[in-house]
Design a protein that fits this description.
This is ATP-binding cassette domain-containing protein. The protein is built from eleven helices and 14 strands. It is an alpha/beta fold. It has two domains: 228 residues, P-loop containing nucleotide triphosphate hydrolases (Rossmann fold, 3-Layer(aba) Sandwich), CATH 3.40.50; 94 residues, 2-Layer Sandwich (Alpha-Beta Plaits), CATH 3.30.70.260. The longest helix has 14 residues.
Length: 336
């Protein structure tokens, strides 16, 4: 389990104080995958460095299975860091070492004997689908294969936590999905807690159980994926269900947003509502996503000028949907 409590990082640039992280708190239980998303400059890179104690936080705690890394020093900190497997955007492999030697390098550092090391490396290369690549060199592998090597290396010391920093941003879509499938496969290995730093919504949709939005060094929205997507006015819901932030109503009508999930997402809510209010409601934009085992439907409707939009909203809510005037919803798509 990862537990981060009130994590703050302050940099000083001359007389100017920059709060790169401002009271970040989160928990990632074992066996789960948590995504951290945010624009460039939101604090994601600083968070990675502070979680691994490559950069010491100004205040707050980072705990791995109850062990406070922020209180550890020197040898104790080096030992504690072994509980974290880190995978970077680029695999950062040693070009002069074979793939097997790259994977075994963390074990070599802590003095594991050669035979034990070789057996562990063979096991891990098999796990990531590279059983026959041990004697190859990084330059001989594709980007996706190098990322698989990076994952195998991160697992070498049997960590409690896997931390991925933009693991797929340099990969093509097919290879991205293969790496995401592998992350889902390894997260069940020994009850690992997995934290993924990303700016790609596809990553969150595909593998995350929960997600946090980091903005200006603060977590401004967080929760289980199905919970955050269900908040019609939430920035994460707007980003993950991804419909255009604005649309023109038809002939002076009124815009209404509608969010349904589960079996309700398949109901013909527009037809029912049009019949109930005596006016033809138009669909201007929509998105249907299957996230964390649940189907979500987000529609943007134009209620005709002759119909009371509040009456249409009442009917939609009666059908089990969350419906609101679009003007009442803060569109966070350009900020998430």
């Amino acid at each position: 389990m990862i537990t981060v409590t009130d994590l703050t990082k302050v940099y000083h640039q001359g007389r100017r104080e920059v709060r790169a992280l401002d009271g970040v708190s989160l928990t990632v239980p074992e066996g789960s995958i948590h995504g951290i998303i945010g624009h460039s400059g939101a604090g994601k890179s600083t968070l990675v460095r502070c979680l691994t104690l490559l950069d010491r936080p100004t205040s707050g705690r980072v705990e791995i299975n109850g062990v406070d890394l922020t209180a550890a020093r020197d040898a104790a900190l080096r030992t504690a860091r072994r509980r974290i497997g880190l995978v970077f955007q680029q695999a950062n492999l040693f070009d002069s070492r074979t793939i097997a030697d790259n994977v075994g390098y963390p074990l070599e550092l802590i003095g594991v004997d050669k035979a034990t090391r070789a057996a562990k490396v063979a096991e891990l290369l098999g796990l990531v689908g590279l059983a026959d690549a041990g004697q190859a060199y990084p330059a001989q592998l594709s980007g996706g294969m190098r990322q698989r090597v990076g994952i195998a290396r991160a697992l070498a010391t049997d960590p409690d936590v896997l931390l991925f920093d933009e693991p797929t941003s340099a990969l093509d879509p097919k290879t991205t999905d293969e790496i995401l499938d592998l992350i889902m496969q390894v997260r069940g290995r020994g009850g690992l807690a997995v934290l993924v730093i990303t700016h790609e919504m596809h990553v969150v949709k595909r593998i995350c159980d929960s997600v946090s939005l980091l903005d200006g060094g603060r977590i401004v929205e967080s929760g289980a994926l199905t919970d955050v997507v269900s908040r019609l006015d939430g920035r994460l819901s707007q980003a993950l269900l991804g419909i255009p932030p604005y649309a023109q109503p038809v002939d002076g009508g009124t815009l209404v947003d509608v969010l349904s999930n589960g079996e309700k997402a398949a109901l013909p809510v527009v037809a029912h509502t049009s019949a109930a209010v005596g006016g033809e409601i138009s669909i201007l934009a929509g998105s249907v996503e299957h996230l964390a085992g649940t189907t979500f439907s987000h529609l943007r409707l134009s209620v005709p000028a002759g119909v009371d939009p509040q009456r249409a909203i009442e009917v939609l809510r009666g059908l089990g949907a969350d419906a609101r005037l679009t003007s009442d919803i803060t569109s966070g798509e350009d900020r998430a």
